[in-house]
Amino acid sequence: MADAARSTPRLGALDITRKLAAICGEPFARFAGPADEVAGRTARWVAVPGGPHAAAEVLRLAAAYDLTVVPRGAGTKIDWGAAPAQVDIMLDTGRLAGVWHAPRDAAVAEIGAGTPLRAVQATLARTNRRLPVDAPSPGATLGGVLAADESGPLRHRHGSPCAQLVGVRYLDADGELVSVGESGTEALGRAAPGGGAGRPGGGGAILGRGEVPGLDVARLLCGSQGGLGVLVSATMRVHAVPAGRLWVSRPVWTPLEVHDLVRAVLAADVDPAAVELDLPVPVPLPRRRIPATHPSVVNRPDHPAVTGRPAAGSLVVLLEGGPADVAERAERLTAVLGAEAMVGHHAPEWWGRYPFAPGDTALRIEVPIGDLHAAVYALRDATGGPVPVRGSAGSGTVHAALSGALPPERVASILTAVRSVLIARRGRCVVVAAPAAVRRAVDLWGELPALPRLRSAKAHLDPHHRLAPGRLPGGL
After folding, report:
1. What are phi and psi of 57, to 5 degrees?
2. CA 251 → CA 285, 313, 340, distances in Å?
3. pTM across the whole model
4. Cα dist. 441→39, 78, 148, 434 in Å?
5. pLDDT tens across 234-263, in order?
């Protein structure tokens, strides 16, 4: 309260607090505390509106007083990305929750932005359905997953969470409630297949010339971290829960070997739901060793496959479908991957988890599948040792971890080296999260060809820069 009063005349600060309480209810509006921060930037007020109309009133109040607003879900990724220039009101979406319009045979469901993803899946499971979304952040809300465009192993078959969107309701910077997509059939009809086109970390179009705002604008919210609108609810595709699931694992000894293995998996016609790589976590080495003439070990007499030391990591393929069909596909896949392949009924412990811990510098690497090994080797060369790498080898999107103890200038040099290797391979390396000193010193996004279009989108959707200013690339 004292901090807020120092930055705003006391009577004005109290007046704003009273008005927020009148909108949200007395227990749901307060001065922010030390824990109410976004990437190290502390908020001044916290408002928890009870519904879309109350959230709209909060935004209108912010506009009237020229205050900035940053949405927050469960806070699992609140430190991802750049720190906002200012956080006046933290708009907590915890009461914008629920799963609606979801009859037993419906192919879509409307879900409140503040609904924990686990609760969504539990609700849908009652009718034997699920969202094909498996974001790794424990406790994450659907709105937070979409705002960060966070995806897990199932992205291989289903794409990012944005690919599951068929409509959204969101609030613009002036507090107007906008419905697009499923609520507007003309917009849905224009929606292109796939997702993530507008993600600031991606390379797709942002807002094409002459396009009518619709589902494309809805997909802009994916990855925008609240900088373009406040998500109220999302209408998502739902699928039947698969009756059978099997994980086929294969140890790997070098990043170069991964390319051949992934190519073999994709050519095997087994329709994998996920193809995940875990490096360099050691796994037990099977008794049978790969031939010394294999391209990954030739002229390497000290290679682990020859000496018998543990493998460097593993490649794991998830198969989903009917039990008999999954078993048949698993048998075919093990024949392709060789005697080292093993079939299990449970995911490995690392499945769907990030390789980084709080305090690390977390990287997301996007590169064509055939060049994934080059990205891993570039990281190892730049850091002078093994770097934990984990993610979707089948789609060329992985995460890596650099120690939080590395000085900012060292991290900057590693990023420069890795990006120089990736740019020639049409790849990118983005800093997802980092200690404050690193975040201030390095370029989080690298080259971003879509920045001019992103700037146009920000100017169109939030011309006064009231929504999470500075969270988007280019300080937008």
Report:
1. -65, -35
2. 7, 6, 7
3. 0.84
4. 14, 19, 22, 10
5. 999 999 999 999 999 999 988 889 989 999
